[in-house]
Amino acid sequence: xxxxxxxxxxxxxxxxxxxxxxxxxxxxxxxxxxxxxxxxxxxxxxxxxxxxxxxxxxxxxxxxxxxxxxxxxxxxxxxxxxxxxxxxxxxxxxxxxxxxxxxxxxxxxxxxxxxxxxxxxxxxxxxxxxxxxxxxxxxxxxxxxxxxxxxxxxxxxxxxxxxxxxxxxxxxxxxxxxxxxxxxxxxxxxxxxxxxxxxxxxxxxxxxxxxxxxxxxxxxxxxxxxxxxxxxxxxxxxxxxxxxxxxxxxxxxxxxxxxxxxxxxxxxxxxxxxxxxxxxxxxxxxxxxxxxxxxxxxxxxxxxxxxxxxxxxxxxxxxxxxxxxxxxxxxxxxxxxxxxxxxxxxxxxxxxxxxxxxxxxxxxxxxxxxxxxxx
Length: 375
Hints:
Layout: H1 13-21, H2 29-40, E1 87-89, E2 98-101, E3 107-109, E4 111-114, E5 116-119, E6 124-132, E7 148-150, E8 155-175, E9 179-183, E10 186-196, E11 210-213, E12 216-218, E13 230-234, E14 238-243, E15 246-248, E16 255-259, E17 266-272, E18 275-277, E19 281-285, E20 307-313, E21 316-317, E22 329-331, E23 349-351, E24 354-355, E25 368-369, E26 372-373
Parallel strand pairs: 1-4, 2-5, 3-6, 4-6, 5-7, 6-8, 7-8, 8-9, 8-10, 9-11, 10-12, 10-13, 11-14, 12-15, 13-16, 14-17, 15-18, 16-19, 17-20, 18-21, 19-22, 20-23, 21-24
Antiparallel strand pairs: 25-26
């Protein structure tokens, strides 16, 4: 496990009782509104009479109107909170505090939290809340810090939550637990959006079972960790679903999606129906195990961990950040790096992926900027 600072532990038994009192006035309202939002998000092509015409070519003019996650349909839904307000927990003067959630089944709702949540329990729910946290550190000293840290063996559902790392946290969500689900999350002020970390010394399944949907990733920072911004990153994870999210990154970023395998094999990850822009390359699904140092050597990535069964389907890429989508292209590719050429161990599995502004299909490789192939 990455070493972390000694964390301040707070007992959450009383908070769990208080959170129940802060629950939604209509117990079915959140589920109903989420279902309605999911149903309305399916058509992003601008063909529906209720969808603005600009959506087909420029959804950034109004992400929510075009059916994509944005600032207005992610983060806390205040209509589900008493008085339409969040109850404050912690102090804005000390957003470096860490509060431990150690009781299974704890539900935190309608809270404005200053400080990070360290989840060590199972079946924890954090809903309709806003969390501001900073480690107070920069560079690699901030490694493995996050507004929400899901620790070994723990599990959490994070629903309609805004996560602000205040340019002082590594990730919005650090997941090395048994399972983590994020719905309608607004993530910013961090170096990586969601990091699925494989603490294989605890469990070979650490960091697996991750779902991220209907969430908005934007305005990242290079000030923490290695400064390589990624929307989702793993060095080994399995059984993942990344579906219908908006990754609004710049060409200063590393990627929207980075799937690697230095700690264990990555497998069974589906990336479907996302809106993505930015990065050096927007997507990495690279087998570089066991030899990361010299991937250009013939056979260097053969014999270690693998990257397999990564499905990339129906994603919309945008030239908002660069004419090549990422600074160099959509897919990381190196023809001179046999045998996988910078890709997965079992080859690319891509279908239905297009560039919004040009209509170009990119299932077979990188897009063109005018007549020039991006690479």
